[in-house]
Specification:
Elements lengths: L2 H4 L58 E5 L6 H10 L3 E6 L10 E4 L5 H8 L4 E4 L11 H21 L4 E7 L30 H20 L2 E7 L2 E2 L25 E2 H13 L5 E6 L10 H8 L20 H7 L7 H4 L5
Parallel strand pairs: 1-2, 1-4, 2-3, 4-5, 5-6, 6-9, 7-8
The protein binds nicotinamide-adenine-dinucleotide.
């Protein structure tokens, strides 16, 4: 049976799957003509004019001011709410108005326009870039690719030039390529971790890989900390009602290797990635600790991929098959939400 034909999709979701990413290390920018004369740059308002900006909270690199993009979307509101609750001054940026009034400031901006991006990021200490077209097939492929890659590049380029030290970028499990492959691409092994090859062939997944590569390159300039989270299937609290439609059928949700991640758990990971130091530039999967099924993980593999025998680690119960171990280890992050705590059979 071809699992790809059996999958049900939840409206508005990115349902897919991942690659290998080298950890980039900073290379001193001594050969960079734009950067070479750091000492000469004392009068350069763009980077060194802290004293000139002291009276202007928007431009002074306020340690609490964070820009979050995509705040009118599915994931953005939960991330923005978490940062606000943790005491940050959040500037929400999207090209359409937010549905909820969460952020202290909201800006309408098209992030494919570099000028608008520079203006929106001005004065921030960090940026969490979530805005994107969240899967292929909504727009034509070149529009999806161009929007997502140019927006991510503009954010990181502007952040670097404005002296912002920390950035988080929403990547996707789609970097691995399982979800939107024409060739029924299957995992090489389980659980799928960040070492698994990134084999996306669609405009959305390729765009996510391109943004991760842009992050590596921009990090090499001055060492800006950039964490790309390969998000699993994003679930907001009202969406737990959908689970009853798939939890007993192993062929449903297979394209995202039965993973999911609560938007509130993404929010806490984003905050940790902004608050922690010394992370460099890296890629991390984010998933809940358990699978999204009422079937044990080993039984899911047996039912759908009986020939995949490279199973790494213990699989005794309902453990996620989309490894979240790296984010837990490097961020000290722990997902707090499981569908099992929310599920209501009658709901
Ligand atoms: N939803 C999922 O299951 C899922 C899974 C993996 C990764 N992701 C990623 O997570 C992020 C958030 O996804 P989502 O589900 O909230 O998507 P969404 O479509 O609900 O929200 C994305 C927001 O980005 C905005 N946006 C898009 N292009 C823009 C541009 N050029 N300028 C300004 N704003 C722009 C849209 O207006 C929208 O409000 C995306 O990067 C997506 O690729 C989502």
């Amino acid at each position: 049976m071809n699992p790809q034909k059996e999958v049900n999709w939840v409206k508005g979701q990115d349902l897919p799957a991942g690659a290998d990413s080298e950890k980039a290390s900073a290379i001193p920018g001594s050969g960079d003509p734009k950067r070479a004369g750091e000492t000469k740059r004392a009068g350069d308002a763009k980077r060194a004019g802290e004293t000139k900006r002291a009276g202007d909270p928007k431009r002074a690199g306020d340690p609490n001011r964070i820009v979050i993009t995509g705040t009118a979307g599915l994931l953005g509101p939960d991330v923005a709410r978490h940062f606000v609750e943790c005491g940050y001054h959040v500037v929400g940026v999207d090209r359409v108005p937010p549905k909820e009034n969460i952020c202290q400031e909201n800006l309408l901006a098209d992030l494919t326009d570099a000028g608008q991006v520079y203006s929106a990021l001005s004065g921030a200490m960090g940026v969490v870039h979530l805005a994107a077209l969240p899967r292929p097939g909504i727009y034509t492929s070149h529009v999806t690719f161009a929007n997502n890659v140019v927006a991510a590049y503009n954010i990181l380029e502007a952040a670097d030039n404005l002296g912002i030290k920390k950035a988080v970028v929403a990547s996707s499990e789609c970097a691995y390529g399982f979800c939107f492959s024409r060739h029924h691409l299957r995992p090489v092994y389980f659980p799928v971790d960040e070492e698994h090859p990134a084999l996306a062939e669609d405009c959305y997944g390729i765009g996510k890989i391109a943004a991760e590569k842009a992050a590596e390159g921009i990090h090499r300039r001055h060492g800006m900390q950039i964490i790309s989270f390969r998000l699993g299937n994003v679930i907001t609290e009202p969406m737990y009602g959908h689970f009853k439609g798939w939890i007993h059928d192993p062929f449903k949700r297979v394209l995202n290797v039965w993973n999911y991640i609560d938007a509130r758990d993404i929010a806490s990971a984003c905050r940790l990635a902004i608050e922690k130091d010394g992370l460099g530039c890296d890629v991390m999967n984010l998933a809940a600790d358990d699978n999204c099924m009422d079937i044990k993980s080993r039984d899911l593999i047996r039912a759908v991929f009986p020939d995949i025998t490279d199973i790494r680690g213990e699989l005794a119960g309902y453990e996620t098959l989309y490894s979240n171990a790296k984010a837990k280890k490097l961020l000290g992050w722990q997902p707090a939400h499981s569908w099992r705590d929310h599920y209501c059979p009658a709901g």
